[in-house]
Amino acid sequence: MFADNARIIIKSGNGGNGHVSFRREKYVPNGGPDGGDGGQGGDLIFQVDDGLNTLADFRHKRKYAAQNGEEGGKRNCHGKKGEDLIVKVPAGTIIRDAETDKVIADMSGDNKRQIVLHGGKGGLGNQHFATATMQAPKYAQPGQPGIELEVRLELKVIADVGLVGFPNVGKSTLLSRVSNARPKIANYHFTTLNPNLGVVDLDDAGGFVIADIPGLIEGAAEGVGLGHDFLRHIERTKVIIHMVDVASVEGRDPIADIYAINKELESYNPQLAKKPQVIAANKIDAIYDEANSALPILKEEFESKGIKVYPISAVSGQGLRELLYYVQELLSTIDDTPIIYEQEFNPEILLFQEEAFTVEYDEKENVYLVEGPKIEKMLGYTNIDSEKGFLFFQKFLREQGILEELENLGISEGDTVRMYGLQFDYYKN
Known about the structure:
Helices cover 18% and strands 22% of the residues. By secondary structure, the protein is α/β, with parallel strands linked by helices.
């Protein structure tokens, strides 16, 4: 069975603890503190591997953890950084938080490598805590913990065109004839258990990637048959080819089949039914009674709705050139920006959920103060100067209820907010 879903547990490395030690030299009997800092924990990184096309490897191993940072040493020696762990996935893999099902990362397009969990920071050694009144501190800072999270991996194949139809209408035959794909073909239902991909090359017109989406039957959107497992693979496609048996070799009604599949697409995701469509009326070589052919009725029913019908024979190749060039023409009118799912959940927010914060108004300075371990830790982990960091900062303020607290205190646009070393003007977005 094609593996396009997996649940795994991922963890970044813990930061190493800071070290407590003092200089002990022959002529320095009362040496000062020289405990080194702990090393940072390793990051948990997802990386696209073009040699992979399923998530089968994740069925045999469920937990992936980066290395912890080493503890600091004496003589100001810093602990070694923990080794990063790179988890390789096929292109098109979406990483979701298992609890909320929100998108953490989409490994598609230009996003070939992404740090999903940063390692914990190493703790400071006791040398950092010496003061005029405390010249021999006997404590050091512990390393910050890494983040552990259960995630759901979901593979959506990346293709320009999705080929859909009921079993045994000839999709695999078509794919093998028009592309470099070599799917297994046999004359029985549910032959295809994998979404097969093929590249179609057209003279003087470029080309496109086509995917044979298997298992679509009535009730697929509710999980009947294999359909629910594969409907997700149509989400990235830009054009849908409906393939029907116009000769009704098995007694099926091609018009009813198209409506049934469109109903399943709409039930699964209403946006799917809005994609440009074309109908491949297959098996015209098997029509022996032209007077009773379903082809004229098929054209009358759908071409009036703006959906072109192309009579073809996947076996003999008749009509394929016209169909493929029309699909290429459709694609040329569509925005070719790849469909990428935006991040909805940043795992690092888990570091701050249990920490407290306070929101107060300082009348004397006319400034709103936001303080507490949660805020201090968040600012330590986040690069506010980067666009991505600033967006995370805004989302953090909203989701943690900090903006709501400020508004309850009567803050207005243009008022000043101070968080430790960070100061900014408040504007509602």
